[in-house]
What does this fold into?
Amino acid sequence: PRSLAAAALTNSAITRKNSIQMLHGDLHRSHRAAGHGPKNARIAWTVDVGGAVEAQVTASPDGSTFYVATLTGELVAITRDGKIKWRVDLGGRVYATPCIGDNGTIYVGSDAKKFFAVAPSNGAIVWSLETEADADTGAALAKDGTLVFASGRSLFDVRRGGDIAWRFSAKAKIFTAPAIADDGTIYVGSQDDRAYAISAGGLEKWAVSLAADVDGAPAISDDGAIFFGTDGDEIVRLETDGGVGWRSNVGGFVRGPLSISRDGSLVVGTFGPAPRELRIDGKTGAILGSLSIQGTGAREFGIVGGALEDDDGTLYFGAQDDAAYAVARDGSLRWRFSTGGDIDAPLTLMPDGALIVPSDDGKIRLISD
It folds into this structure.
């Protein structure tokens, strides 16, 4: 493959919720964003939030406020024009992407072994739940109104008031944010090398060994297939009954969330020794295109996760070379710009075309034409 070019859209009528209220924007974790991203890397504003950011920035339902989780343990609210509105200490590092309810309440966990509900008006803690382990994965707001998230080796389903509906235990830590299918089935991976399917009521439907740690959120395609990345340098397609559709070697660890393009292909970030952003055929596992970044030769250096795709098919992502990238549908590099730290978090696109870039340098940048 010569580029990261997208295939022609196979279904122009594809619709999705225009949401940036949870990791990758929807329950399938597709990362298909609404709007047209910026054609140039013009920085409209920069906000220093005081600590490295490794979680995706999400927004209030009306788009007027951004929510930023930091490794100094704070949740920071930033207004649309780049002013800090409030900040609240959550007692420990926050790796989890904040999940925003339809009423604006922010739900997020921290390494203080707690999961929080936070008021959007002033950052007051509405309630907190003890989780016994680091609550470091992004929550999913299920269709029944409950919140699904992982902490340690447990997957929790929590009602809006903070009481536990059910709890499921894997055999080792669950590092992945859950993806939820249209029928309510929840999919997660674990460091016990397994992929799990769990019913909406918390019962195990199946568990499949993938022979290596699973650290990044799975993604669900439009045909219902579930895709996982592993520390065995593989992407694995699983069918809804747990059968393996295919396994594809991608030459490096896959440790971040996957993305699903509108044409059904996967967009995948890999680690070294030759880190790349890949496009993979969802039906066959064939690598369709790639964009390489300058690596260090280390297996632990690379790209954490799949790119977001805008309405034009342009892909936007960050990497551990401290840079953010925009790649046009034809595979050409539209722009690249550097920050002062790794970009491990997914980027966020607002419907009006503003792109939010978090960085380990402790700064949030808004890019806009």
